[in-house]
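pasting for ref. prot 1 ->
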Amino acid sequence: MDVSFLGGPQPQRGVGVVAPFDFALDRELWRWMPDEISLRLTRTPYVPVEVSLDLARLVSEHETLGEAVRALGATEPEVIAYACTSGSFVGGVGGERAMCEAMNTAGEVPSLTTSGALLEALEELGAKRIALVTPYTESVTQSLEEYLAEAGVTVTGRAFLGLTRHIWKVPYRSVVDMARQAVVGAADALFISCTNLPTYDAIPQLEAELRMPVLSANQVTMWAALRRIGAHAVGPYQGLLLDPPPVRHVPRLEVRGEIPELHEMPEIHQIPEIHQIPEISGIGDIPGIAELGRMEPVQHMQDVQPVQPGEWAQPAQPDAPTEEQEGWT
């Protein structure tokens, strides 16, 4: 079959992603991408260190990031995201900003990090108190809490797994269980940390169960990257991705002063007393009845115009229930 007339594939806009060497969830990132966007991924060099604060510092060195960003430049991305939560919060808010500046300089395109995208998403939702889920050790989790505190975000509850490797193998069931443990106080949102932790399919379930926005590391990274280029992430039933996002803070109504008694309300005096309402002794006393009597009656049935076929839409007939539907209770 000759396909030369097709002219080749449609142009694709590019989103560059720098990920740690052990990142294993490329497919999950793609699920947030609209059809006209392509991901261009690269990874930092391998270092023989398990997931820890030391690893977070190693994979986020400015020289390492600069080389990765320059390598991505050959594919001409419109934006570059550093997809690593711990690597972007380990230096605090100032460290995260410095990383973005180093990436901007190396690639000459807008750049962002997962931890910076998290703060952007929390601001978008108006969330100041969050429940926190991580697969990390306690020390790494504590470092994330310190980063959030520096940005003015309070952690109301947390749950962590204490893992130092193979985080991408954690099942959704464990993620959901941790979320239930973390939501112990009043929170505006839940954040699930680590770009190597699967979350895409768990987000809608948790939002429905917990009745709050649920954010994850990969979700906020892709959301923020696409937002930079005027595109929208694809994620059914994910509150952050609604446009505009749902309103989470409904102000409480405040009553100023005392509520007046019923007889003190000015509108009440406009209602006539019951004895002022004219007495209706017969049907002819009802307003409008006399006018109806002056209408010309229909003399013959032939004066009534028949309805032509097709002038009225017929009600749709319900489909016959399937065997499966008949078994519903």
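and prot 2 ->
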Amino acid sequence: MNLLELFTQTLDITLPVFAMVFLGIGLERLGWIDRTFVTTASALVFKATLPTLIFLSLIKADISVALDISLMVFFAIATLGQFVLSWLWAHFRVPYAERGIYVQGAFRGNCGVVGLALAAGMYGNYGLSTGSLLVGVVIIMYNALSVVVLAAYQAEKAANWRSILKHIATNPLIISVIVALPFTAFSISLPSWVMTSGDYFASLTLPLALICIGATLSMSSIRDKSDIAVSSSIMKMAILPVLSTVAAWLLGFEGEQLGLLFLFFASPTAAASFVMVKAMGGNAGLAANIIAITTLMASISVTLGIFALRLLGWV
């Protein structure tokens, strides 16, 4: 296979995902969708269609393949390592008041939507099922670590751990993983009409979520970008994914495992980071800049990353 064919195959994976994001930008600009639609659709995805997608992908999966303990442990350790590394960098390079926002933007990825969409495009049901378990792990870590670093630089906004733990325990994505595991472990089947209806409903998830991501991007935020936002975005989309993926390869991960890890490491900053910064009285504008820049960067960085990994024969 020559380089052009390899790159074309890479685009076949990434372009469908990011085309939906840019479609969302266009539809919002044309006025065909508005903030009310985005709010309603995003809530539908988070509370219903995405949990359904995760549930169905897990009950269809071979648990001996999907439940990859070594992969989950490494992903958790790598996430913690990314958190520590970005905090160390911010300690020496970022103004005090904005360090927490910088760190959250640099390590907190949009694995639940962009990561899963890319995983499904590249690895099909394996990407969805194994990726869903990784999402369950990382949601807990993202929320806990984000509160820690934001509270450290927002002294007047003490972290409400009881509320955070409640949000984690009632998170629909985590609940869907927990509910699905007994079905998978004991091979409990559902009626075919339930599965078919569920597939119809779940199929709304990724295109709707990606369109909403595009519709919420602020082009004015990107034009008003700050050096701190750019630095956090480069850390998120280039430095940390490369370091984490190389570390995974050195430890023996390869093929589907390594590809899945890269896709999750290289996902752009999660939109939830903006909500958390705003709730804790931080610089919400900086958080929005990081989300917008990383989302647009991802269309290039993820494509080049997959191409490089395939060229090296690692995935």
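DSSP finds 15 helices and no strands in the chain.
The radius of gyration is 19 Å.
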